[in-house]
Amino acid sequence: MSYRLITKQDRLAARYVPEGFERFEHAEAQALVCLGESRQGLRVIVYTGTAAKPCANYVCRNEWTRLGAVLRIVAGRIASAEAKRQHKETLKAPHKLTLGQILVSSWGYDQTNVDYYQVTRVVSGRSVEVRPIKLHHTQGRDGMSDMSGYVIPCPDEFIGTETSRHIVTRDSIKVGYHQYARLWDGRPNYCSWYA
Fold it and tell me: Are 149 and 139 in contact (CB under 8 A)?
């Protein structure tokens, strides 16, 4: 059995455009818009990027509805491309993390857990070494349950080992699978617990 690599040209050639439909290329949105009529009514088919399958295949009541659908898709693609470009620029910018700064991670499903980390070493422009630090429970506000309150970090009171962490944005790091820590703003953080 032999395998063949599917190329960009193969995917573009696999796009189905019914006979008699007008084709419009939108370079900025990287979209192919196909307009035409079918038995059901006015139809619009939109392919984006190099996808072989359409991202939109609508039958519209009138020309205005069809135009609105096309504008929504094209504007969304342009906004998405701009957001990706801005995110890349953000990643290129130097980070703001320095030695001794405290980062906070608030997480949990049925309860709100809070972890604090202190920057112990700036490794490079894309990573830092951090250590978990103790936290101090403060009193809850009036009317709050006995199973919630506020916590603040205890700087330089380390409770774990030093680990190297990748910087995600200018002031946050990834500390777990879906867990991030951001620069602490100096205010107590809400936490809750059950059991």
Answer: yes
- Stated pTM of the model: 0.58
> Do 117 and 83 fall into the same domain?
no
Q: Are 181 and 110 in the same domain?
A: yes
- CA dihedral angle for residue 33, residue 34, residue 36, residue 40, rounded to 10 degrees: -90
Q: Which of 68, 92, 116 is the last residue of a domain?
A: 92
Question: Is 97 among the domain residues?
Answer: no
Q: What is the pLDDT of residue 154?
A: 93
What's the domain range around 88?
8-92
Q: How many domains does the chain have?
A: 2
H/E/C letters for each residue in the chain? CCCCCCCHHHHHHCCCCCCCCEEEEECCCCEEEEEEEECCEEEEEEEECCCCCCCEEEEECCHHHHHHHHHHHHHHHHHHHHHHHHHHHHHHCCCCCCCCCEEEEEECCCCCEEEEEEEEEECCCCEEEEEEEEEEEECCCCCCCCCEEEEEEEEEEECCCCEEEEEEECCEEECCCCCEEEECCCCCEEEECCC
pLDDT tens string 137-171? 876 554 456 778 899 999 999 998 999 998 887 78
